[in-house]
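During the no-cost extension, the postdoctoral fellow (Dr. R.K.) reprocessed legacy sequence entries with the updated structure-token encoder. One reprocessed record is reproduced below for audit purposes.
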Amino acid sequence: MDRSNVIGLFIDDAPVLSSLQFSLATEGLTTIEGDRASSGIPAEDLLVIDQSYQDDGLRFLAELRERGCAALAIILVTNPNPLFRTRAGALGAHIIEKPLLGDELSDAISALLGQQKAA
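Re-encoded structure tokens follow.
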């Protein structure tokens, strides 16, 4: 995986955001805080979106997709129901269940960005 990839973190909870920024930085990954006020398409290589971002992380991702954003996406979610999984799949998002354990998020990011580079 190319460590120059940028991961956009769309997380409303400041302590969780800080924790993820620190954790991913120790893995050598570059992160930026997602800009909720931006009306443009994020330029990040991969988006990590919390299920509750702007009250509905999947709705936020759907809006980005409608504007042409094709970035890889991971949704962080607690106990996703079948409808949530279906909606996430339709948007091309990968689900990682919270609480985050071990290196699950960084491993998923590495795998997704590695697949992108191979394609």
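The beta strands are 6-10, 30-33, 46-50, 72-77, 93-97. The longest helix spans residues 104-118. The remaining legacy entries will be reprocessed before the final report is submitted.
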